[in-house]
Design a protein that fits this description.
- The complex is a heterodimer of chains A (100) and B (230).
- Chain A has a domain at 29-88: Helix Hairpins.
- Chain A contains 3 helices and no strands.
- Chain A has helices at 4-24, 28-52, 57-86.
- The radius of gyration of chain A is 17 Å and the shape is elongated.
- Chain B has helices spanning 3-24, 28-48, 52-76, 79-84, 94-117, 137-144, 149-170, 173-182, 187-192, 223-229.
- Chain B starts with a helix and ends with a helix.
- Chains A and B meet through helix 1, helix 2 and helix 3 of A and helix 1, helix 2, helix 3, helix 5 and helix 6 of B.
């Protein structure tokens, strides 16, 4: 049987890969995909604890995470479409309207 | 090494490698396909953790619906433009922010690994093998509609709000103008609501950088708007 630590290694590695993508990439589409990777890492941790404590609550919570991720992707992509309508390019460093 | 361990290592490696490929690809379409591969590998890991229903959900919702949404948006936008959008120049946050992000991520993974290595999470319950019902649609559904009923309904409301919000945000200004006219708004009302802006474009002085909405151009302005302007 695979020990829980190995699932947690996988979860933390996926989370950090997503975090790196969010911090280092400037293409807004890839930043959104990296957020999905981070949510996947969190889900793996939830399901791993759920399995190893014999308690189903973690899986239900992971299900809610998937639903919230779907909502986030829908709204995020709508914002991306709106950004592309009003200006060219998808560089998130150019989007400093609220700061200027 | 047992069969489940081999499956775990193969698919954990696949998930991580696909994740790295996702964040390093230049073309968003290629990145999306790698992300689908990562989602499938994660679904296999769910099965290993006896979360079969969640694995089905992962494939259906993540790899199916959500990635179709991503690819559709990339296709609707100009693909060449999204691919070339990321320039090589240093980010506006500067070198410091760049390396600080790298350091923060590295520190985070070290922290998580140290916490994991100390094995303080493992409880005696970890060795109890689950029964066959564990993680099935039956068991999860029973929990979802009893203990988590309120959260379930709240999530359905959240999805409704997200759909409406997405439609409202992604509408073009021409559509908004048309709807405003259909609702009986006059040009002055639309102007006050910021929907109709090419009247004030003329008296903006040249040095001023127009806001994102002022320079928005959705093709030809609608004929009705021009009539009203004259």
């Amino acid at each position: 049987m695979v020990p829980i630590t190995h699932f947690l290694y996988l979860a933390s590695t996926l989370f950090v890969i997503g975090l790196l993508g969010v911090m280092l990439r400037r293409n807004v589409l890839i930043v959104l995909m990296s957020v999905e990777l981070m949510l996947n890492g969190a889900n793996i941790a939830l399901v791993a604890f759920s399995r190893f404590h014999g308690n189903l609550d973690g899986q239900v919570l992971a299900m809610f995470t998937i639903a919230v991720a779907a909502a986030e992707a829908a709204v995020g992509l709508a914002i991306v479409v709106s950004i592309f309508r009003s200006r060219t390019g998808s560089d998130i460093d150019d989007l400093s309207l609220l700061r200027d | 090494m047992s069969g489940s361990e081999i499956v775990f290592y193969v698919f954990a490696f696949m998930a991580i490698a696909s994740g790295i490929a996702t964040i390093t690809r230049k073309n968003p379409v290629v990145a999306a396909v790698w992300l689908v591969a990562s989602f499938f590998a994660v679904a296999v890991n769910y099965v290993l953790m006896s979360a079969s229903f969640l694995a089905v959900l992962q494939v259906l919702v993540y790899a199916g619906a959500m990635m179709v949404l991503f690819v559709f948006v990339i296709m609707v936008l100009d693909v060449d433009e999204t691919g070339a959008a990321e320039s090589r120049r240093p980010s506006r946050v500067g070198r410091f922010g760049y390396y600080f992000g790298l350091l923060l991520s590295g520190g985070m993974i070290v922290w998580v690994l140290l916490a994991t290595l100390s094995k303080q999470f493992i409880t005696p319950g970890a060795r109890i093998p689950p029964d066959a019902e564990f993680g099935s649609a039956n068991a999860v559904g029973r929990l979802l509609f009893t203990d988590y009923l309120f959260a379930f309904e709240a999530v359905s409301l959240l999805l409704l709000a997200a759909v409406i919000g997405a439609v409202v945000v992604a509408r073009s200004r021409r559509e908004r103008e048309k709807e405003a006219l259909a609702a009986g708004m006059t040009l002055e009302h639309m102007h006050a609501a910021g929907l109709h802006e090419h009247l004030q474009d003329q008296d903006q002085h040249e040095g001023m950088v127009a806001g994102p909405y002022a320079q928005t151009d959705f093709g030809e302005p609608s004929a009705i708007g021009h009539e009203g302007g004259n």
